[in-house]
């Protein structure tokens, strides 16, 4: 059996290396004809926003939906909210079916490039999103949108170039005729001219998800006449950086609409660029846990206040103290699990057909609760059943030290009791091209 045990954030299946391209705010390609046909002819149109924390903020997402409502006042636009902070396109490909496709969107904005790493792209996951979405909903349209993440991408964009990640996305977009909007091009121009500052002098990224990111600049320009883009250089202020993102969309949509609204169906897809993530099914942990060892949390808002990802994207959360374990069998190509990472979490052990590995659930970002995925197995022969056991461990961690790595030790010091438990919170099982077995 070929087995790979690795943490999601370190995983890429197949990288499509692509040299940086000249940055363009909008590439129209085949447009969004089905979407605009529905805007002109349907009473209700559904728009899905699928991405990470920048999409989760009530910024460009909310503002762009308002653009549609103003342009087509006779149409009711329903939002499909599907962003999870701090996650990439690999998780996107795995959760597409449950979080997006099941709601039958007419248009899907895909925003994962910022979280897909500094080199190459998880091309198989992006291609998997495209192909699986169109296989299920051939008349749904897709638009890639890009944000700006970190100093290196900002400098590249100021010099008129994309990152390798965005260039790889553009290869996929070229192949499938998907329009794309780089929302950061204008911000980069302003920064190069000295009219915009990406982050405040003391700014640093302290959160990857949650309402803590939703800040207002409270000013149009700083003392030097520069627009303040974001407090941390990544997550824009709602009243400055996000407005620049929305303005990029507003400039791009008329160009995309000009392609027309002649309906088409993506029933015949081009030859894939490479191996891509296949169909993934989500299974409730409650199907396999032993009730005596695990407690089902009934009031998720009470346990995880304000954490939408832990309320909206999982059917249940099960807590186990050190020593609690669960076992199951499955067939499939890949296995991923959801856990909740937060102050009261620690380590887990995963045993797959006798091969075991420890995983640290708690990390530097665990001062607040969030949904965290772990890819446990990939590239497996789906004809060979797999046995899995997951155990909560009581290994002691220096949690204050992990918090100090992002200058958050004061959060630990304010409530050390919250960090004392080393429990495991299981939230979901995701299997590619397979199922749970008896």
UniProtKB/TrEMBL annotation:
Residue span, SGNH hydrolase-type esterase domain: 50-187
Keyword Signal applies: yes
Keywords: Hydrolase, Signal
Keyword Signal included in the entry's annotation: yes
Gene Ontology molecular-function annotations: hydrolase activity, acting on ester bonds
Signal peptide: 1-18
Gene3D superfamilies in alphabetical order: Galactose-binding domain-like (2.60.120.260), SGNH hydrolase (3.40.50.1110)
InterPro entries in the record: SGNH_hydro (IPR013830), SGNH_hydro_sf (IPR036514)
Name of the protein this chain belongs to: SGNH/GDSL hydrolase family protein
């Amino acid at each position: 059996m070929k087995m790979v045990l690795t943490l999601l954030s370190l995983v890429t299946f197949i990288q499509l290396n692509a040299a940086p391209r000249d940055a363009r705010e909008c590439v129209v390609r085949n447009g969004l004809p089905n979407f605009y046909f529905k805007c002109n002819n349907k009473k209700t149109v559904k728009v899905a926003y699928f991405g990470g924390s920048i999409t989760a903020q009530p910024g460009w997402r909310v503002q762009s939906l308002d653009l549609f409502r103003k342009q087509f006042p006779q149409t009711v636009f329903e939002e499909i909210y599907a962003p999870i902070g701090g996650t990439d396109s690999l998780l996107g490909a795995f959760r597409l079916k449950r979080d997006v496709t099941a709601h039958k969107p007419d248009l899907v904005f895909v925003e994962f490039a910022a979280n897909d790493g500094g080199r190459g792209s998880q091309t198989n996951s992006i291609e998997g999103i495209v192909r699986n979405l169109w296989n299920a909903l051939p008349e749904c349209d897709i638009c890639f949108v890009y944000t700006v993440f970190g100093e290196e991408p900002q400098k590249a964009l100021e010099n008129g170039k994309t990152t390798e990640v965005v260039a790889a996305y553009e290869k996929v977009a070229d192949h499938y005729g998907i329009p794309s909007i780089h929302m950061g091009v204008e911000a980069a121009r302003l920064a190069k001219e000295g009219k915009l500052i990406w982050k405040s002098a003391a700014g640093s990224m302290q959160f990857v998800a949650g309402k803590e990111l939703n800040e207002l600049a409270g000013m149009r320009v700083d003392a030097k006449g520069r627009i303040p883009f974001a407090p941390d250089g990544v997550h824009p202020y709602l009243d400055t950086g996000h407005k620049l993102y929305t303005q990029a969309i507003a400039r791009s949509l008329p160009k995309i609409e000009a392609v027309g609204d002649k309906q088409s169906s993506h029933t015949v897809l081009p030859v894939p660029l490479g191996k891509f993530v296949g169909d993934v099914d989500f299974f409730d942990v409650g199907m396999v846990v032993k009730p005596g060892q695990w407690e089902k949390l009934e009031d998720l808002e009470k346990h995880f206040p304000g954490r939408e990802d832990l309320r909206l994207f999982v059917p249940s959360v099960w807590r186990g103290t050190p020593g609690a374990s669960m076992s199951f069998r499955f067939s499939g190509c890949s296995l991923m699990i959801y856990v909740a990472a937060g102050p009261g979490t620690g380590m887990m052990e995963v045993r797959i057909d006798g091969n075991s590995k420890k995983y640290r659930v708690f990390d530097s970002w665990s001062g607040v609760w969030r949904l965290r995925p772990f890819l446990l197995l990939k590239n497996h022969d789906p004809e060979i059943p797999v046995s899995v056991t997951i155990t909560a461990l009581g290994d002691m961690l220096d949690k204050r030290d992990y918090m100090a790595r992002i200058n958050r030790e004061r959060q630990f010091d304010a409530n050390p009791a919250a960090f004392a438990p080393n429990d495991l919170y299981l939230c979901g099982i995701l299997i590619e091209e397979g199922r749970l077995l008896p």
